[in-house]
Amino acid sequence: MPHPRDPGTFSTILHTEGPAAALAFLNEAVPHRYSAVYRLDGDKLQNLFLHDKQGEVRPEFLATVPFEVSFCQFVLRDGTFRTHDSAEDARLDGHPYQGVMLSYHGVPLIDDRGELFGTLCHFDVSAHPLADDEFELLEKAARILPAYLGNRVSGSAPPRSG
Q1: Which helix (DSSP H) or strand (DSSP E) does residue 2 occupy?
Q2: Taking the model in full, what pTM does it have?
């Protein structure tokens, strides 16, 4: 029987099975290949956790992303960012990954001090919409995740694939 798609289930999975399983839960009902947690680290974003629906090892280009070419920059600037097809999204005109990373749906992660920690996102090299209820779950998960990460992720820990 599938898990209910709600923040309580996300929280239970996070605390009993860890962030890799929690990302897998978020990813299981969306069409996107990847779901990820990125931590803001100066002028770059460090991948802390990545779930790949295809079960592949994390590609190196997703391990560390320069802030100025990331789609995460728009999450941090605007509060959220959603594009189901970046090739058709005029907000991304001139961006080097427009038409390359086609779908991206992300929300900010704010730590317990109210400071920006990073982003939680679904993305894919294929164009995919994200249902509003799944985006709402992503937003609610982003309110739960930082407290867990703050207690368990050190800056020197290597990111793991999901």
Answers
A1: none
A2: 0.89
